[in-house]
Design brief:
305 residues, binds 1,6-di-O-phosphono-beta-D-fructofuranose, 15 helices, 8-stranded parallel barrel, 46% helix, 10 strands, two-stranded antiparallel sheet, 13% strand, single chain
Length: 305
């Protein structure tokens, strides 16, 4: 085990050997293995956004086999997806590529309730499919957030009991306006909530300079948030002073320069890594591999500095 991985796992010292072993698997796999940094490929957008919005830009992505192959060939640390996609490929990839079973999902077809994902699979599915972790989305600011927090409490307890860590997608959504969803105070708060719920790995969106909550404005007068690096640093600090692994999502497809500039800011701010979906699988395989490789270069350089 490298010093970097040892240092990170020391922050999870209270966990059982199964959870620690699976965290070690995630941290030791792929091109960034052993550096303490992670790049993960998430492909739940078919469920969350629909097939055409997700896969039409690169139709190879309609095939469930496409994504884990891209993850392996790019050297990603792990691949995360809902039950259907994982079931379609686990026989081939379990043990070769760390798999994260996304156990809740929501569509974007609308409905009268505040956003709340359905439980779409369970801990025994993750075990059966040879997964290294489960994934769960919470929507802080949704009217149904307390139900999600309570479901997550039970899931983390159940997953931990069988040695599986939990990756929490913490996405503020519901009562907030669009700017509020990615405001620095809200993202830092979302990271903190996920950690307090027992998340082993926290995933949030890159924060903007906006401070959304009136009650938080005074506190942010003395916190540097002018650059993305400063904001990432504050989010990492909000995740138990960096003692929990915090990774940032990629967002809608954008130009290569914009993606890499964002990753540079996140890496400079101490991010543990990125979880990049659309910006990877919506490009051609060659372009996706090149972009993921450039992203990994940035994190590798940050780990070495
Ligand atoms: P992307 O890199 O495509 O943003 O993927 C990360 C992710 O968290 C996915 O797991 C999820 O489907 C998507 O973002 C949600 O995006 P949005 O908030 O735009 O619905």
């Amino acid at each position: 085990m490298t010093k970097a991985v040892e240092r990170i796992l020391a922050n999870y010292a209270g966990e059982n050997p199964g959870v620690l072993g699976n965290l070690r698997r995630l941290l030791n796999h792929g091109r960034l293995g052993g550096t303490g940094k992670l790049v993960i490929l998430p492909v739940d957008q078919g469920f969350e956004h629909g097939p055409a919005r997700s896969f039409a830009p690169n139709p190879a992505g309609y095939d469930p086999a496409y994504h884990p192959r891209l993850a392996v060939e790019s050297g990603c640390n792990a691949y995360a997806a809902p039950l259907g996609f994982i079931e379609a490929i686990a026989h081939r990839y379990a043990g070769e590529l760390p798999l994260i079973l996304k156990v809740n999902n929501s569509d974007s077809l609308g409905g009268p309730d505040a956003p709340c994902s359905a439980l779409t699979s369970a801990v025994p599915d993750a075990l059966r499919l040879g997964c290294a972790a489960i994934g769960y989305t919470i929507y802080p600011s949704s009217g149904l957030r307390n139900r999600m927090y309570e479901d997550l409490r039970d899931l983390i307890r159940e997953a931990r009991a069988v040695g599986l860590p939990t990756v929490v997608w913490s996405y503020p959504r519901g009562a907030l306006d669009k700017d509020g969803e990615t405001a620095i105070d809200v993202i830092a708060y979302a990271a903190q909530i996920a950690c307090q719920l027992g998340a082993h790995v926290v995933k949030v969106k890159p924060p903007t300079e906006v401070v959304a909550e009136a009650a938080a404005k005074k506190s942010y007068e003395s916190i540097p948030i002018g650059t993305l690096a400063e904001r990432a640093r504050h989010v990492v600090q909000s995740a138990f002073d960096g003692k929990r692994i915090v990774i940032f999502s990629g967002g809608p497809a954008k130009g290569t320069d914009a993606v890499l500039e964002e990753i540079r800011g996140l890496a400079e701010g101490g991010a543990y890594g990125s979880i990049v979906g659309r910006n990877a699988f919506q490009r051609s395989p060659e372009d996706a591999k090149k972009l993921l490789s450039d992203i990994m270069d940035i994190y590798a350089a940050a780990a070495a500095s």
